[in-house]
Amino acid sequence: EVQLVQSGAEVKKPGESLKISCKASGYIFSDYWIAWVRQVPGKGPEWVGNIYGGDSETRYSPSFQGLVTMSADKSINTAYLQWSSLKTSDTARYYCARRFTTQFHLDFWAQGTLVTVSS
Amino acid sequence: AIQMTQSPSSLSASVGDRVTISCRASRDIRDDLGWYKQKPGKAPELLIYGTSTLQSGVPSRFSGSGSDTDFTLTISSLQPEDFATYYCLQDYSYPPTFGGGTKVEIK
Q1: In this complex, which of A44, A107, A112 lies closest to B46 when CB atoms are compared?
Q2: Contact B29, B23 (CB under 8 A)
Q3: C-alpha to C-alpha distance for A74 and A116, rounded to whole angstroms
Q4: Which among A17, A33, A80, A116 counts the fewest CB atoms within 10 Å?
């Protein structure tokens, strides 16, 4: 059974760093891309970027390029999303999801990680 | 980025009703469109991709149609578990972009 499980909710202050994780199981991690999606409460989802499990190739949405960093460790089937200096505008729920091999649609999703940035 | 506009933003319907939701792309996206359903506090789930292909396990009361810039999600007979927010997503060009959502509420 394909499963994606994310790390727990985080409360941070502006300027702090953060790394959240997404652990995959039930499929060959190296064969698929993992996407990250942001959703501000009450708003529609936004595509952050995606990372390939096999070689950690990344592709960022222009809106998020330079603001976040994606990484992956295929030895433990885990993808990561990190910030070096959080802003209050980063407050949102972040989802990881497995991407189709040839399209960008997302067939399995994790439960999401709520990131709250407040002074 | 391609803009996706959904209409209506919300609707009220009863169990058994036929419901249609529209999604318009700011330019031609061929048939590279999917639909997702999201219940409060849960992750979105894929219903349809490639405009009309049902994802495995999705009930046949859901269907999708359209091409180029105009697309429709139809629920033929609304069930209690279908009350949720629905989003379209274009995957024609990068970055993929979601519509603003259509909330389906109980009348």
Answers
A1: A107
A2: no
A3: 28
A4: A17
Query: pLDDT tens-digit profile of B60-87?
Result: 999 999 999 999 999 999 999 999 999 9
Give A 27-56 residues with CB within 8 A of chain B. 37, 44-47, 49
Phi, psi of A46 (to 5 degrees): -135, 140
Using CB atoms, which residue from A44, A97, A100 is nearest to B87?
Answer: A44
Q: pLDDT of chain B along its 107 residues, tens only?
A: 999 999 999 999 999 999 999 999 999 999 999 999 999 999 999 999 999 999 999 999 999 999 999 999 999 999 999 999 999 999 999 999 999 999 999 88
Name the residue of chain B whose CA is nearest to A6's CA. Answer: B43
- Record: contact A104-B97, CB cut-off 8 A: no
Secondary structure of residue A42 in the 3-state scheme: coil
From first to last of the 119 residues of chain A, give the pLDDT tens digit: 999 999 999 999 999 999 999 999 999 999 999 999 999 998 999 999 999 999 999 999 999 999 999 999 999 999 999 999 999 999 999 999 999 888 889 999 999 999 999 99
Residues of B in contact with A45 (CB under 8 A): 36, 44, 87, 98
Measured between beta carbons, the chain B residues lying within 8 angstroms of A103 are 32, 49-50, 91
* Paired residues of A93 in beta bridges: A39, A114
Residues contacting residue A99 through CB under 8 Å, at least 6 positions apart: A32, A33, A34, A35, A50, A105, A106, A107
